[in-house]
Amino acid sequence: MLDRMIMRYVLGITVLFLLSSVNLLCEGTNGSKEDPCKDMRLVSRKEWNARDSMRMQRMHIPLSHVIISHTVTPFCPTRIQCSRWVELIQDMHLDERGWSDIGYNFLIGGDGSVYEGRGWLYVGAHAVNYNTISYGVAFIGNFNKDKPTQPMIDAAQNLMKCGIKLGYLTPMSEVHGHRDVACTESPGKNLYSEIRHWKNFKGGRLSMYYCKKLETPEVNKDILNE
After folding, report:
1. CA-CA distance, 176 to 159, in Å (whole number)?
2. Confidence class of residue 36 from pLDDT cuts 50, 70 and 90?
3. Which UniProt keywords apply (predicted)?
């Protein structure tokens, strides 16, 4: 009788242990929410001291194109320097070009960080005819002279992976250089040579290639040529 009671007790403990293990396993696989952008270091608008946007137009997502540009400014190796250059670029786009905000959706710093411009949700002002159907990603520097570093390349590719996982980019989205959509040297020969090796790169002039002098926009209104 005593032996039977001990066996039942041991069996009960074993069942409880197994059930607890299954619950922990389920929580680890289904209950936890892994950050889809954990490999990307994002510097928010607030962190780089952005000015308020004057006007924003919502994107119709998901998109299938990413256009790579360069800022033709000095290279920035630290977050402090990159943040300051992003501020200055926004000032130029607002005050000199009359746009409603910084033109790019994201910028890539020499420190390996991604700097939030207009972000995933809002139309940029980086490539005439393609603003509403692409994300503009600008590498900070002049890549006719500078060479993109591995942390910058990783940051840009992790940004695109993040966009796909969050549903802002289609899984088969294409990468283009700015020169593929407009008569410009952007993103510079060194950066263009790099992105040509990316598996989702699609080179050559696109159908809405633009090569005309831009008109002066109205104050706080972007030139979209939709």
Report:
1. 15
2. confident
3. Disulfide bond, Immunity, Innate immunity, Signal
Q: Decide if 121 contacts 141 (C-beta within 8 A).
A: no
Q: Diameter of the chain by CA atoms?
A: 97
Contact present, 82 and 156 (Cβ < 8 Å): no
Between the CA of residue 66 and those of 92, 126, 132, 163, what are the distances in Å? 23, 11, 11, 10
Cβ atoms within 10 Å of 224's Cβ, excluding its own = 16
Dig out the tokens for 15 from the structure. Answer: 């069942």
Nearest residue to 181 via CA among 69, 72, 82? 69
Q: Nearest CA to 151 among 162, 142, 139?
A: 139
Under 8 Å between Cβ of 188 and 70: yes
What confidence tens digit (pLDDT) does each residue in 165-215 have? Answer: 999 999 999 999 999 999 999 999 999 999 999 999 998 999 888 887 666
Distances (CA, A) of 3 to 6, 7, 8, 15, 17: 5, 6, 9, 18, 21
